[in-house]
Specification:
This protein is an alpha/beta fold and 516 residues long. It is built from 15 helices and 11 strands. The protein has 2 domains: 345 residues, 3-Layer(aba) Sandwich (Alkaline Phosphatase, subunit A), CATH 3.40.720.10; 141 residues, Arylsulfatase, C-terminal domain (2-Layer Sandwich). The protein starts with a helix and ends in a 27-residue tail after the last helix.
Length: 516
């Protein structure tokens, strides 16, 4: 039911009552209201690590991200928990790996109310919580027993004319300003600011029209160096820059409200860019994301660069600990607080020397609703991937008739780059790029990142790397068993059979019933 803005300031969110027990179980907040920081979490939709100014891209301009990095900590090895929107956002909110979240391991699904969220726990500790733009989504809340978005009640009244086609008309910063006006003065706040950019589609040619030079684009080596690719990347950069401008506007709102210095500002993305072999894949282009955190009261040596290997789900425990709360017992999240403050290590706390990444069903582009289950262990210098169903097409079936979206290789968003690869697959110089984007994968993949940073050469079958393969395989398996992954423990793995609530352009597409 719709409520006006003043209603939001007095009524507690419905999901607050579900987890109000948290304060009693976890001992409540050890900090006074005045000492608890605010939290502004800014998340773009489909942005790879490389594409910020601070991370070294020569074309894209991201002054807001660069400021947060300059005045805080920039992480060089942050990874999403899943390279697909809904599961990644579910992991961030719950502080848990996607294989522990039932239906939420799939996109276009639901996030069951049985899973506590950091937003809910903060609300139970009297934080004022809200969100705007793309919060938890895409999917349906009701099947999971929720009535409000788990990222926080949505502030969505304000609209604006976007600068380019393909962009949302939501006034993200304006809605954040409304939230700040509504927030009671005696309560700290937690706000989720999620843009729909740079998700496709893009206005074609907007990058070059804005004055960007295609000749300056750094083309990843898994794409052909072609004008279509260069211009597609320029159009994507324009949307990355729009997200950055929203972050800048939000920080201006904080400054006007006198709250910037007491606010943890986080800027990141849910997963990598919407291009072939990036989004919806476990390679770095799909999983490694920008991450910078600014917190004047908590960051030691501002401007520092951290090489800690972290998952975005680690933010849940970080936010809770910063607020004086303990994480929920079910959370696998590791707090980054010591990394921010450079305090002495806490005995027994896991080291930030690895990230675990997972994938189940992305967008319903195989017959019967089957996904592409895979798991990855990312360490310094190495990437190991286990593909549980190597006979399936990782990018979706080439036959559009078996895809809910009714497009070939439907796990990959339609784009000029994708079309270029498909239309020229048999031409000299293109087949290798086509195979990198769409071909089937073996059961195991291993990449030596010191020699192969873009993961082009799978050395899993090389006898010289057999000891490393065994080590990585064993480490991943042990962790998955410890954290209860059905794919590792032999328990029923139900993701292929959970309902799909996304748009079905193919009206004949359906999910197979669970076998008896």
């Amino acid at each position: 039911m719709a409520r006006n803005r003043n209603d939001r300031g007095t009524r507690r969110p419905q999901w607050r009552t579900v987890i109000v027990w948290a304060c009693a179980v976890l001992g409540g907040s050890a900090l006074s209201a005045a000492d608890r920081p605010n939290i502004l979490f800014c998340i773009s939709d489909d942005q790879s690590y490389a594409h910020t100014g601070a991370n070294g891209d020569p074309v894209v301009k991201t002054p807001a991200f660069d400021r947060v990095a300059r005045e805080g900590v920039r992480f060089t090895h942050a990874f999403c928990d899943a390279p697909t929107c809904g599961p990644s956002r579910s992991a961030i909110l719950t502080g848990q790996h996607i294989w522990r979240l039932k239906e939420a391991g799939n996109i276009h699904s639901t996030l069951p109310a049985e899973f506590a969220t950091y937003t809910g726990m903060l609300a139970a500790a009297d934080y004022f919580v809200g969100s705007t733009g793309k919060a938890w989504s895409p999917g349906r809340l009701e099947p999971g027993g929720r009535t409000e978005n788990p990222a926080g009640p949505l502030f969505a009244a304000r609209k604006r004319r976007p600068p380019h086609g393909g962009m949302s008309n939501k006034d993200y910063a304006g809605n954040f300003a409304d939230f700040l006006k509504t927030r009671p003065a005696d309560r700290p706040f937690c706000f989720w600011l999620g843009t729909h950019e740079p998700h496709r589609g893009f206005q074609a040619g907007v990058g070059a029209a804005s004055g960007k030079d295609p000749a300056n684009v750094v083309v990843p080596p898994f794409f052909p160096d072609h004008p279509v690719v260069r211009n597609d990347l320029l159009d994507y950069f324009v949307e990355v820059e729009y997200f950055d401008s929203v972050v800048a506007d939000a920080m201006t709102q904080l400054e006007r409200a006198g709250e910037l210095e007491n606010t943890i500002v986080v800027v990141t993305s849910d997963h990598g860019m919407p291009f072939p072999r990036a989004k919806a894949s476990l390679y770095d282009a799909g999983t490694r994301v920008p991450l910078a955190i600014r917190w004047p009261a908590g960051v030691a040596k501002p401007g520092r660069v951290s090489d800690a290997i972290v998952n975005l789900s680690d933010l849940a425990a970080t936010f809770l600990e910063a607020a004086g709360l303990k994480p929920h017992p079910a959370m696998t999240s590791r707090s980054l607080l010591n990394e921010l403050t450079q305090s002495p290590p806490i005995p027994g706390r896991p080291a930030f020397d690895r990230a675990i990444i997972a994938m189940e069903r992305h967008d319903g582009c195989r017959r019967g609703g089957k996904g592409y289950p895979c798991r990855a262990l990312r360490k310094a210098g190495w990437l190991y991937i286990k593909n549980h169903e190597p006979d399936r097409w990782p990018a979706g079936d080439p036959d559009a008739s078996v895809c809910a979206r009714a497009i070939p290789f439907g796990e990959v968003d339609s784009s000029p780059t994708k079309n270029l690869l498909m239309e020229n697959a048999e031409r000299a110089g293109f087949r290798r790029y086509y195979d990198l984007a769409f071909a089937k994968h073996p059961v195991e993949e291993l990449y030596d990142l010191s020699k192969d940073p873009h993961q082009l050469n799978n050395v899993a079958a090389d006898p010289a790397h057999a000891p490393r393969l065994l080590e990585m395989r064993k480490e991943l398996q042990q962790y998955l068993v410890k954290t209860g992954d059905p794919r590792a423990t032999g328990k029923p793995a139900l993701w292929d059979y959970y309902p799909y609530y996304g748009l079905r352009r193919n009206k004949d597409w359906k999910v197979d019933p669970l076998p008896k």
